[in-house]
Amino acid sequence: MARPLQLEFVISGDHVDRLPVSEAEVAIVGRSNVGKSSLVNALGNRKKLAKVSNTPGRTRLLNLFAVDGGGSIMDLPGYGYATASKQLRAGWRSMIEGYLLGREGLTMVVVLIDGAVGPTKLDVEMLDWLRAHGLPHTVVATKHDKVKASKRHRRMREVAEGCDLEAGDIVWVSAHKGTGIDRLRSLVLTWLE
Q1: CB 70 within 8 A of CB 192
Q2: Is position 131 within any domain?
């Protein structure tokens, strides 16, 4: 069993150039309300490390967390938050793309997909964008606990097909129940080595 990551909040910033240098960094991206902040909290086994809200789109800045032992985790704003202004959404997109293309030390982009919903058009666009730019990425399906046990195998195949991947390529987790969190912690540590 992988012990919880020792995470410490470092800084929030609105541009990649305003962030401290990191030798190795794992970025977490996904649409609004997919559970990015909940996942950061689960990785660190701390409830209030990253702010979690019932209102989608609360994460509006690049939020950097240092990992004890070296490296860092970046919690990025969610994409696809409909009730924000068009100008604000365009600013987030520019900030996210600027970070992903400009961050020295970025070793992995973790793309969160809502396992209960499956990949949306925006998720597929993000995956296509990452592939087009040659950025290393892994798909993590969240909300494993929201998928009925009798439908999980079919849902796993559907999510994989929607992401143009094999079922075994996707890491399934539940921040709420802890499912798959140990495996993801181990992967994060590997990506930060």
Answers
A1: yes
A2: yes
CA angle at 65 for the pair 16 and 19, rounded to the nearest 5°: 20
pLDDT of the residue at 79: 80
Q: pLDDT tens digits for 154-181?
A: 999 999 999 999 999 999 999 999 999 9
pLDDT top residue among 21 and 94: 21
18 in any annotated domain: yes
Q: How far apart are CA 113 and CA 105, in angstroms?
A: 24
Mean pLDDT estimate for the chain:
90
- Residue ranges making up the domain that contains 46: 7-187
pLDDT at 74 over 90: yes
Q: How many domains does the chain have?
A: 1
Question: Which residues lie below 8 Å from residue 134, measured CB to CB, with a gap of 6+?
Answer: none
Note whether residue 77 is domain-resident: yes
Q: Judge whether 1 lies within some domain.
A: no
Using CB atoms within 10 Å of the CB of residue 19, give its burial: 0 to 12 exposed, 13 to 18 middle, 19+ buried.
buried
Q: How far apart are CA 160 and CA 28, in angstroms?
A: 19
Q: What is the pTM of this model?
A: 0.92
